[in-house]
Every structure is written in structure tokens, then in C-alpha cells.
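As agreed, record copied across for absentees:
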Amino acid sequence: MNEMQLKYGCNPNQTPARILMKSGELPIEVLNGRPGYINLLDAMNGWQLVKELKKATGLPAAASFKHVSPAGAAVGTPISETIQKICFVDDLELSSLASAYARARGADRMSSYGDFIALSDICDVPTARLIAREVSDGVIAPGYDEQALAILKSKRKGNYTIIKIDETYRPDPIEQKDVFGVTFEQGRNEVEISEALLQNIPTQNKKIPQNAKNDLIISLITLKYTQSNSVCYVKDGQAIGIGAGQQSRVHCTRLAGDKADKWYLRQNPKVLNLPFKDSIRRPDRDNAIDVYLSDDYEDVLSDGCWEEIFTKKPEPLTREERKEWIKTLKGVSVGSDAFFPFGDNIERAHRSGAEYIAQTGGSIRDDNIIETCDKYHIAMAFTGVRLFHH
């Protein structure tokens, strides 16, 4: 099959809609459900991301996509009890692939609500069981275990979108898209993200340990498939904060840093021990935690809204307590899809535990960026590669 008709495009008024191959067969097979236009954009971008993560790290990889940018991405490294708790998977048996998706979903659970999932490996039963209980639009993978496929087919009253992709498929080196009746054409971004991009270290601190190199590679591969401008914070094989699609780079850095902070704050004992009622669903818990970590939570407490969510009135996590907790976040790696133009980006990244940075370099203010890194003993690599994605 070289063509697939779609219900509509980005919006219901955009008809007709389809995907097609100008030559050859489509590299995907829809095993269940009916994917939409945006679903397929997420699926194609997500698949490329996890495929590259698997190639670069040798580990199973997963991504959680929303509106053509990843809300999270991770590889299947061991997952601690605390991370299991904040990802709401401490009651599940996890394979390496399931751990990768739990961590990808757990980076920004509110943004991942209704995501499209990409898996680097054949979907196994533990991963299918995890997906089955989350709110998601669909999944793409190179294959599915028979039992895993049956589990996924039962999701969303039998309408859950399941896509199998031919992992041997290689696209044409020239890609095109039409905008306002004009065809744009360019060579595909085939740059390989590897440790070779981390050799030019202009900072006084030139020590980037292997685990940080791996995290920097993960950040850069994630950025390669994130709408630009974009900045990505990574720790222990997991993207913990992605700032996508901002016109100002410092806004990317702030957005990603705020998400990384919230990911870390979820590990605070006060958050871990919030007295939720048993009837409260995971998405509602995510929303409640988001409110609990906001500056106006004490106003919410005084309004009595807590009675709908909690068995007893929670003790607030004060602004000062939040600041002190975030100060203990260390060892974070930060990637940027282009150069940092001002030192305020480094200042903001440092506040969220950044100790290692990879960015393009080439700004007229590189000296100021290096000086700011040296101020905080941050090791920074100039990759010489820009990773804009649109």
C-alpha cells in the first residue's frame, strides 16, 4: 500500500487528507484503530528519535510525543523506587522497555496526557500493561508480542491506534513539504549524534564523565526531533525537562528548567506522601501535584478544595522549602539545539543542577558563555552542529 486516507488533516475543516509515498510502499502497517494526521506526524518523529537513541546507547528507548515535540524521552536504565513512585509504576513489573516508557512519560506527566508513544523495540507484555492504563492516543513500534498486542487492542474500547513500522525502512535523502502552495526541499538531517561532538571543551572544567556524555547525547538526539528553539535537560538517561518551540532561547531554558524542577520536586517526601483518596485517578493526581507545587497552593487549601482530593489537609511545601530542595539537584546535563547567546541561559540552567552542557557554539558572546560556565565549574562542549527542526 502506498497511500492511506485520513479522516481529516490538522483540523476537521482540512479535508481531504492522506499520507502517501511517491514511490514504493508505506513503511507502516496500522494493526488497530485509525490514526489521524497529527498522530502520524508524532509517530514518524517519535520513531526516528527512539531509533537513534537505541543506536547511540544500545538500550531500549521510548518517547512520549505531543503535537510534534517530545514531552519526554528515555532509555531503559534501572529505575529507582522513588522514580517508580513519581511515575506511578511502583505496583508493576517492569522490563527495560517498560522502564524506558515509564521514565519518558514521567518527565512531564501533564504534557504526556493523550500522548503518542514511540518504542525502539518489540512491545512486550510489561510495556503493554503500562500503556494500557495511561491516557494515550496510540503507539508505534517495530513489532508486538502476541499477548501485548491483545492487551493494547482492548484499550479505548478497541479503538486504540497501534502502528507497526518496518525498522529496515530508509527514507530518500531529499525531503520535501509544501507550505502555502510552495514546495520546500532539503537534504535530510542525517548528522550522527555521538561522543565525537563532545571533544571541543573550551571551559576550565574539561571533565565530562561517561554517564554525563551519555546524557548529553540523549539530550541532543531528543532536540533533533523537537520543534525549535529547544533546550533539553537530562539526568540518568531520562529527559527531565524539554523546552520546545520558543522564540527566545532563554525562554526555552527557563521552560525546560521549570519542568526539570517540577520533576525533582515530585521526589520530595511531602509530595511522595500526599494523602490522596484511593478513588483519585492518576491524571487527577498529576493535576493536584501541579497545583500543590504552585505558589498559590495555600490559597487553594484555604478555599477547602483539598477535601475533594485528599483524605486530610496536606501540609504545604513552601516556596523556601522548594528552593532548598531544588538546590540539591545535581549532575544534570543540558543540551541546546543552537548556541546560547547570553550567559543568563547558563545562570538558569545552573539553578536546576546543570553541571554539563552541550551547545553549538559560534555566538559572538561565546567568551561570556564560557566565563559564566567557569563561574559555576560547569563543563561545556561546543558541538559545532545546529539541530533546528521544523
In short: The longest strand covers residues 69-75.
